[in-house]
What does this fold into?
Amino acid sequence: MNGSFQFIDIIFFAMVAAFLVLRLRSVLGRRTGNERPPQENPYSRRVDKRGDNVVDLPNRKGDMIPEAYRGTPVEAGLTQIKLADPAFSPDDFLMGARQAFEMIVTAYARGDAQTLRPLLSDEVYGNFMNGIDARERAGETMEFELVGIRKTAIEGARMEGNNAFVTVHYTSEQVSVIRDAEGHVVEGDPNQVSKVDDVWTFARDTTSPDPAWFLVETTAVDEEV
It folds into this structure.
């Protein structure tokens, strides 16, 4: 009798062991020999005031490089900026760059130096002010309407030391007219909407607590009706 009970116990424990093995495989997966080698966690571990270990987990959406830039030369530059500034998000940057474009071109047309100053590098601010001063000396005024921004896209990104640079290509529709002191049109057509392509480069010191980006270079690519 004792031998029979021992045999039944062995069968029972074997079934339990088999069940546990199957459950572990379903939860953890089984090795196939093609697994990626373990990678170092890029997010540092810190200790909070309570002495507990806390892992700084990333915002997964913000960490992703948008699909449009993957596999392109821009991806490497965006990744470098992301490593220097983990809070950097290409999508959020483009939203800000779009708003900055509207503010800057509108302020330039109005001759609004106060709005331009915090958005531009010293060199670009000087160039813009030269244009504004030239208009004022000639007694000219600029009428400007940004009809719409068709497209914004990052076409360049890089790190130079601690400074991040991102180049944005804008395609917009504008109406721009310059009138003389008598109100006569000397440049542009008030009834014509032109498609304008601009390439602007923004820069930021990634070690600075100030999150602001500054416009450091502008190029007008072309213009057409």
